[in-house]
Amino acid sequence: MAGLIGILAFDKIWNINKFLYYGLIGVQHRGYTRSGVSLLSEGGLIRTARSSVAPEDLEFGELEGWAGIGYAGTSNYPIQSEGISLAIDGVIKDQEVFVKELEKDPVEAVKRNKPTFTFVAITKDGRIIAYRDYLGLKPLSIGGFGFDMAIVSSEMTSMNVIGGELRREIEPGEMVIIDRLNVESMKLFSPEKNYCSIEYIYQARIDSFVDEKEIYSLRLRIGEKLAEEYPIEADCVVGVPDTALPFALGYSRKSGIPMDLGFTRTGSPIRTMLASDDFTKVVGIQLKLNPIKTAFFNKRVVLIDDSMVTGTTLKNTVFNLRRLGAKEVHILIGSPKLTSKCPYGVAVPEEKELIAANLPDDEIAKVIGADSIHWLSLNGLYSAIGHRDLCVGCMTGKYPTR
Fold first, then answer.
1. What's the first-to-final CA gap in the chain, in angstroms?
2. d(C-alpha 346, C-alpha 9), whole Å
3. Any alpha helices (H) in 165-277, and if so which ranges?
4. Each residue of 222-258: b (16+ CB within 10 Å) or e?
5. Nearest to residue 58, comparing CAs of 80, 33, 81?
6. Which family is it part of (predicted)?
């Protein structure tokens, strides 16, 4: 999982480092344990800074330039050679070989490798090269800042942050090459359209627009589907911030059960599914899920979350709700069961770590201390999204490239 951004000013008088910095913060929800930027300055000099911190803590130092790329994720990108710097969203093999091929001939490099990852690159001759994987697993969009800059980004959210606007989504299998005089688009592969289901359920921000779908409205429909599939007698519905709040709102509207805001946050958002170690996961849970006692005391609660990986987050949360006096806690998950590792870079671990792959529902409920637990059905997911052009490999074990 990663957030990518590329910005190119059509006039070299611009210094785009602050645009790049704040634009990168606009996609840091996609990954925050590593970050990096590469900026192109006069004379074809590319300078790169990388850090094992979130983008908001990345030290730009004296880096300046009129074009550049940024990365927020879990790897040590961007990767730089003499004439190009590259950041990817996905999984790459032989990255040094690919970078050299890309530097020599971008079109031929992509045609030869047919990558299942999405990337943005900056070259020393003043081009941004952006490619979206032919399966459509990773989103990528193009936009602009007036007539002054071109922007490519994983999501429109980074464009909005810096006052830019979305022009369109880049299609699966499409490459876009931008320089100061031209924006060139070419379809290198026919799109196979296996959009990542996790993008809709969890990864994309709720104010985003991915693969022609408005994420907020889609997540409301997921909540409505949960209400249709699992009508539960309860006193309140609570969503786990932030992703599951629209699920809870949709469930509440469909069921007529009042929705409560059951948690308050401490500090900056931490997405525990993306955390790289157990300590960060536990601390992240406490930071983002500080429960409000009056929302739960002496109540039968429907608690909705976006996914369940190991069960650590929900076990801790249910314990705290019981401690605050909740009479019943029924868990609903706004996705089908996660049962298989993702080979394309989504943070779904090995099967042995996935609680839904190893225990029946009643045992899972006992482990996390809930009265019941239910998952959105696969058909419910298809219905909420409105099509079946999805990769659901982490839920079924069947992948587009296998």
1. 20
2. 32
3. 197-198, 215-229, 245-255
4. bbbbbbeebebebbbbbbbbbbbbbbbbbbbebbebe
5. 33
6. In the C-terminal section; belongs to the purine/pyrimidine phosphoribosyltransferase family.
Q: Give the pLDDT score at 267.
A: 64
pLDDT tens, 267-281?
655 555 545 555 555
Binding-site residue positions for [4Fe-4S] cluster: 196, 342, 391, 394
Q: How many helices (H) and strands (E) does the chain have?
A: 14, 23
State the average pLDDT over residues 298-302: 98
List CB contacts of 18: < 8 A, sequence separation 6 or more.
Answer: none
**Residues in the annotated binding site:** 196, 243, 305-306, 342, 391, 394
Residues 243, 208: Cα–Cα separation, whole Å: 12
Provide the annotated binding site for Mg(2+). Answer: 243, 305-306
Query: How far apart (Å, rounded) are the C-alpha atoms in residues 46 and 320?
Result: 50
CA distance 399 to 402: 5
Cβ-count burial 26-50 (b if 16+ within 10 Å, e if not): bbbbbbbbbbbbbbbbeeeebbbbb
Q: Mean pLDDT score of the chain, rounded to an integer?
A: 92
Beta bridge partners of residue 153, listed in sequence order: 5, 141
pLDDT at 402: 61
Q: Which two tokens stand for residue 77?
A: 């990108």
pLDDT at 287: 61
Instruction: For each of the domains in the chain, give its residue range(s) and CATH number, in order of start.
Output: 3-193 (3.60.20.10), 197-396 (3.40.50.2020)
CA distance 89 to 106: 17
**pTM recorded for the entire structure:** 0.91
